[in-house]
Write a structure and sequence with these properties.
The structure holds two protein chains of two kinds. Chain A is of the alpha/beta class. Chain A has 18 helices and 25 strands. Helix content of chain A is about 40%, strand content about 25%. In chain A, the strands form five sheets. Chain A has a nine-stranded mixed β-sheet with strand order 5-4-7-8-3-9-10-11-12, sandwiched between helices. A nine-stranded mixed β-sheet of chain A has the order 17-16-18-19-15-20-21-22-23, with helices on both faces. Chain A has a two-stranded antiparallel sheet with strand order 1-2. Chain A is rod-shaped, with a radius of gyration of 46 Å. Chain B contains three helices and two strands. Chain B has a two-stranded antiparallel sheet. The radius of gyration of chain B is 14 Å and the shape is elongated. Classes of the chains: A alpha/beta, B alpha+beta.
């Protein structure tokens, strides 16, 4: 680290490069998400520059680095504040749950406010900043500090006029801090036309972090970018971040990639018939389901089933509602027989109702991340996801959804997103942007026929499982969603009352046929009886005739016999000689 | 003119005074004059012994 010559900054940089290529040590900042995008935190024992405009969160970043270091990683820290007093700084972070005063009392943190006022200083020729060195040095040695924050060193430029001395002293300061082996965060104001107002990036070349706070469509979004990180790979994207009640939170979503493990476990959708359609077992755990349909097609009801089924399994469900309030959903779902209230009461179900226009796109994503991390659900519902689409360009929305879905998958959270499609356009086309991201896509389609509206549902795709290709009629009953077979006949699929009429017709036809068969059976029976009777009569006739014949036969025989007897008698009487 | 007594402090030996007295640059005279203390033009101005004038501020290199 010690470079005896500092003829030009570039030389020092290059020398450092070769040293750090072998892999550098990092210290975790403790800031949620930041350590993930930098693969471990800030370079150990080196200064890092945090640049941003007014109100971009520079000081908070630095404070959190220091306080979390002291609390979480047992690394004491020194804060040299040029702009705010120790009391002001302590007050600023009290709302985030940090008790700076007690940390100071325990000797884990020192806050040194350095007061510079140009009007109070009379510069007379050559001087150096040894006084500053001594102060920082004493503070570091007093508590054995491993971390130092200089906020904002640029105040020196407005306090002292001899820029030549200042610049050489700054160079000396950073070299000295490196020698001390403390990890330093220096904050700097974003410059007009250059990176920082006073060219601080010249001195700090190990890590440069840029914080941005911009307003788009009247919605503000905070973003963080690692501009430079020597000797380390890092995400180069802009990452949205939040300053919430838990402090600074960066969302390292794009860094996830497609590496998540998948589950073979299946979970129910909450509608038995739908599970049957999905290979008989329902959805894969950790998969993403999209339910698209036009307004009033029953998407939220399906989502409620899904949420209710999750709670019945004892899983936690987070319901993001962008259009209805919690009580409204509870009331509406109760009317179709889905009672979600007990789940809300026992803490398995949580509603997050937010108006989409309340935040920018990234901010929504950030908040969703925050709540998901906090609540740790197994199942989430986003109703509807299309409300977010209106907040940004197609590209931005897709990027955001990729990040969200990646995030959910990495935690194996099963997600059901509803999507409102406007009438007229082809349903399959309207969501081209996200269709490739989701695993199972259910379509609820309005079918108009014979002056009425029916709902038909089918599975457009479902990755990794055999699934039904048939359209089912989607009926909302007082005991929830029901899927019934549609009537498929020569005139196509029939739904709604047409299906009912058709079914009634069929039933009537079947009944008629049954009755016809019955009638034929009776006729046949009658015929058989008739024939039987005829047979009996004929047989009786035959028997009569037979008897008659027998009688006449007997008579004939009698007559013969008598004749013979008579003849014999006559012969005897004549005394014939034979 | 009154008599003044000047105490010379070697800050490196008593570093805690840097914080107490808000010392940034060295050498510092009476907490507000830094640099060349033998400058007979700037030092008396800093000590309010001579009024700040237009000509005086022009004498400053980076003013």
């Amino acid at each position: 680290m010690t470079q005896p010559n500092f003829t030009h900054n570039q030389q020092t940089n290059r020398a450092d490069d070769t040293k750090t290529l072998s892999g550098i040590l990092k210290v975790p900042t403790g800031i949620v998400g930041f350590d993930e995008i930098t693969d471990g935190g800030l370079p150990q024992g080196r200064p890092a520059l945090v640049v941003g405009g007014a109100g971009s969160g520079k000081t908070l970043f630095a404070m959190e680095f220091l306080i979390r270091g002291a609390v979480k990683y047992n690394e004491p820290g020194v804060l040299v504040a040029f702009e705010e007093t120790a009391e002001e700084l302590a007050k600023n972070v009290t709302s985030l749950g940090f008790d700076v005063k007690s940390l100071e009392a325990e000797g884990r943190i020192i806050i040194d406010h350095l007061h510079i006022e140009r009007s109070e200083i009379e510069e007379s020729g050559e001087y150096d900043l040894e006084g500053l060195f001594i102060r920082i040095g004493l503070a570091i040695d007093t508590i054995g500090a491993k971390r130092v924050v200089l906020d904002t060193l640029e105040a020196l430029f407005s306090g002292l006029s001899n820029e030549m001395i200042l610049r050489s002293e700054l160079r000396r300061l950073f070299r000295w801090l490196k020698e001390k082996g403390v990890t330093t965060v220096i904050t700097a104001e974003q410059g007009n036309g250059r990176f920082t107002r006073h060219g601080m990036e010249e001195y700090v070349s190990d890590a440069v972090i840029f914080l941005d706070h911009r307003i788009e469509n009247q919605l503000s979004t905070r973003r963080l970018r690692v501009v430079k990180y020597r000797g380390s790979s890092h995400g180069t994207n802009e990452y949205p971040f939040l300053i919430g009640k838990n402090g600074f939170e960066v969302l390292p979503i794009t860094s996830l990639g497609l590496k998540h493990a998948v589950s073979r476990e299946r979970v129910s959708t909450g509608v038995a018939r739908l599970d049957t359609m999905l290979g008989g077992q329902g959805l894969y755990r950790g998969s993403t389901v999209l339910v698209s349909g036009t307004a009033g097609s029953g998407k939220t009801s399906l989502a409620a089933h899904f949420a209710s089924a999750a709670c019945e399994r004892g899983e936690k469900c987070l319901f993001f509602a962008f259009e209805e309030s919690e009580s409204q959903i509870l009331r509406n779902m109760c009317s179709i027989g889905i009672d979600l209230e007990p789940w809300v009461k026992n803490g398995l179900l949580r509603f997050e109702s937010i108006r989409p226009s309340q935040y920018g796109l990234e901010m929504h994503l950030a908040r969703m991340h925050q709540v998901i991390r906090e609540f740790e659900p197994q199942v989430i519902v986003i109703d509807p996801i299309t409300d977010l689409v209106a907040l940004g360009s197609a590209l931005e929305v897709k990027a955001m959804l990729v990040r969200l879905i990646d995030f959910l998958k990495s935690f194996q959270i099963t997600a059901l997103c509803t999507s409102l499609t406007t009438g007229g356009s082809a349903l399959e086309q309207s969501e081209v942007g996200i269709s490739s991201l989701i695993d199972t896509w259910l379509l609820v389609r309005e079918v108009e026929m014979n002056g009425e509206r029916a709902r038909g549902m089918y599975i457009l795709k479902s990755r990794g499982m055999a699934h039904s290709n048939q359209i089912r009629e989607f009926i909302l009953t007082d005991h929830g969603v029901e899927l019934v077979d549609v009537y498929l006949g020569p005139n196509g699929a029939l739904m709604g009352s047409a299906r009912l009429a058709q079914e009634a017709n069929l039933a009537a036809e079947a009944e008629a046929q049954r009755q016809e068969v019955e009638r034929q059976k009776i006729v046949l029976e009658r015929k058989r009886k008739l024939i039987d009777a005829q047979i009996a009569a004929l047989q009786a006739e035959l028997a009569g005739e037979e008897a008659e014949f027998q009688k006449s036969l007997e008579n004939t025989q009698h007559a013969d016999q008598r004749t013979r007897q008579d003849r014999a008698t006559i012969a005897r009487l004549r005394q014939a000689d034979e | 003119m009154e008599q003044y007594q000047i105490e010379v402090i070697e800050l490196i030996e008593q570093p805690q005074l840097a914080r107490v007295d808000q010392i940034l640059a060295l050498p510092t005279l009476v907490r507000k004059i830094i640099g060349d203390l033998s400058n007979t033009e700037r030092v008396p101005i800093g000590l309010d012994l001579r009024p700040r004038t237009q000509t005086a501020s022009k004498g400053c290199l980076y003013a």
